[in-house]
Amino acid sequence: MIAFSYTEWVLIYILILLVAILIVFMMERHHNMEIIRDLDEARDDSKKYINDLDNLLSMFTHFQEIGMTHPKTDDLQKLCDLIIEYATDLLDTKMGSLMLVNKSTNMLEIVASRGLSEDIIRSTKMYVGEGIAGRVTQDGKPIYCEDIDKDVRFMRHSNVQYTSKTFISVPLKIKNKVIGALNVNSDKKDRKFNQRDLRLINILADQAAIAIENIQLYNDMKEMYIGTIETLAKAIDAKDPTTRGHTDRVTKYAVEIAQEMNLPEKLIRNIKFASLIHDIGKIGVKDDVLLKPGKLTESEYEDIKKHPLIGEQILAPVEFLTNVAPLVLYHHERYDGNGYLEGLKGEEIPIGARIINVADSFEAMISDRPYSKEMSREAAVKELKDESGKQFDPKVVEAFLRILDKKARQKNKKLEDDYGKSEKKDKVS
Ligand SMILES: [Fe+2]
């Protein structure tokens, strides 16, 4: 047996002590490293969370701008596209859909999506209560689906390849009313959604639902308002038996001219609407003046001349009629500046108003009125040509003459065809 001296024993003891200290130090260090790693992870996590919340805030601001501050009809689609883009971005995926309940069919339909084919978008329709989105809409509660293959609630499309099996569907809810569902799929095999994702998407869906509802309410109100004004305009039209149907015919001519002139779709819509209500201001003109069969006195004529202004005053306060009101206000201006109300000249008069002026005047010329006899079409066309550059915008007259010419040729061709057919028939018989 090896015998150690006292000094050696001391050295061995010190060595063992040092090794023990080293082991304790290493363990402590490892533990500290773990803590640091955990802290780093927690810091990264909270950074991501703060970042997500930051994103959410800017998304809400955007929704607010579209859906609350100045909602417009066209904004609903824009808003839905934005919601799906934000929802998928938030959960770091490129696959999702936004479904809304169609009020007339009571079925859920995809109104905006990402990563889905046109075919799927068109064909996916489900009743409230059906499938996952249907259940979410019915119950108003979110569903987190870990594996769509194993979930019997999931309505699969055989032609869709789902990369990941994780799926979240949250209701679009305002108080207790559910208007649809927001669905998000993970597009990565190894990315599974978690409770935090569910919470985030729920917060987004709540704000999105309010913005959607706001635009829908605005659209409903707008349709109701338009309906009321149209009814009112028709009532004015019907009040005078000699002008009955005048508005519809003026609208038809005005839209045809605007299309012939290749005006933008939005402007054509405004022209159509302005034509339908161009004489709405006559509601403020006394019946005995409006329906007077004979010649008007000077003061009566002055009263009649106020109708474009009264019309504009009715329409202008309504935000979505802002672009329609000037067409009503200026529909009696003349190209040469001798019209009323403001004596605008040439292109100072909005193009829509110049078109309505031609359509309105032509319709009046070929109609029998108490104060003027019905003109033949030929005489009315001659009048249009004579007044081109005076009362009427020459470009508008040219476009209208092209339409009338086309129609006359079509009519002649039909007459010739009919005549040909009847001749053939006579020969056979
Ligand atoms: Fe008028």
Write up this protein.
The chain is an alpha+beta fold and 429 residues long. It folds into two domains: 51-216, GAF domain (Beta-Lactamase, 2-Layer Sandwich); 240-421, Orthogonal Bundle (Hypothetical protein af1432), CATH 1.10.3210.10. Helices cover 59% and strands 9% of the residues. The chain is built from 14 helices and six strands. It has helices at residues 6-69, 75-90, 118-123, 131-139, 195-239, 246-260, 265-276, 287-290, 298-304, 307-315, 325-329, 351-365, 377-387, 394-428, and strands at residues 95-102, 107-114, 125-127, 143-145, 167-174, 177-185. A six-stranded antiparallel β-sheet has the order 3-2-1-6-5-4, with helices on both faces. Strand 1 and strand 2 form a beta hairpin. The longest helix has 64 residues, at 6-69. It is elongated, with a radius of gyration of 37 Å. The model has no long low-confidence stretch (mean pLDDT 85). The chain binds fe (ii) ion (FE2). Fe (ii) ion is lined by residues 278-279, 307, 331-332.
